[in-house]
Every structure is written in structure tokens, then in C-alpha cells.
Amino acid sequence: MPNQRRTRYFTDQKLQGSLFATFLTLEILLLSASLIYLYLKYNQIIEAELFKIHAANNGLVVSEMLFELSKVIGLLLLANLVALGIAHFTWNRYVAKILNQFTTVLDSIGQLKLGPKSGITPLSHEVLDTLEQWRGIELRRSTSIRTICHQIDEPLLDDPAGRKALSERLKELRIHISADSKTQTPL
Hints:
Largest sheet: none
Order of helices and strands: HHHH
Strand content: under 5%
Oligomer: single chain
């Protein structure tokens, strides 16, 4: 059975790395603050109960401690939900920027505008870099096809020797097109 282990853990190391570091820092700070708060609150509750030795124990200590713990857990949950909402918004905005630029470049390629991209704020991403390489290959390929096509003269069709030259040009064009299609980088 082939190895099915995941080899790529991040789709975008720059953004996901910073989000991971931010969340790790946030969790450490939240848990530290929570533990300090609980320590101080529990200390207050226990000290208040220490001087009530001779009074009847009515079990309020445990309920007070559980109330403080539930407040801390609620606040931790709320802070984590807010952080996840911010991360979701950040991730969606980043992906939308990449997809907008990707769509713009693909639309210009679809309209056979293969020249350098203009009016697009450059983003650095592996997908966009691959698309740019492919656009460059297509530009070179279309330029060479156009050059070969311009070298074909119509008067060659009337002359038998010209037909042979035309046939050679078409073979050259076929060879050129098939060679370029083999060197293209897949998206």
C-alpha cells in the first residue's frame, strides 16, 4: 500500500505560520491570565472560609469556586471564538485576493493578452508564480507561431516548389507547437 501520509501541512506558510504563532501566543497569555485569576480568586475564597471554622459548613466554597471557574471557561471560550472569527476573516480575505488576481490573469490570457500584467498589484504566492510562468511560456509559443505564420507567403500556393516550402513551414510549425506543449508547466 502506498504511503498515504500527508507531506504538506501548510498551504501558505507565511500566513498560516503567523496565524499559528499568534494563536499560540494568545492561548498562552489567556491560560496564564486565567490561572493567575483563579489562583487569586480561590485564595480569597479559601481565606474567607478559614476564619469560619466554628460555623456550620454550608458548601458555599465549592459553589463559589465552580462559579469562578465557569466564568473563566466562558471568557476563554468567548476569546477563542473571537480569535477564530478574526482568523477566518483574515484567511478569506487573503484567499480572495489571490483568487481575484488569478482570475484577472486568466481572463487576460483568455483574451489572448499575454503580455506583462498591468494594473495588477503583485501578490507573491506559489499558484500565481506558476500561472505567471505558464503565461510566459504561452507568450513565447504564440510569438513563435505568429512569426512562422508571417513567414508563409500566399504566392507559394501557386508554385509547386512553393507548396513544398509551405509544407516544410507547416511541419516546422507542428514540430514547434508539439515541442512547446511538452515543456509547459502544469497548473
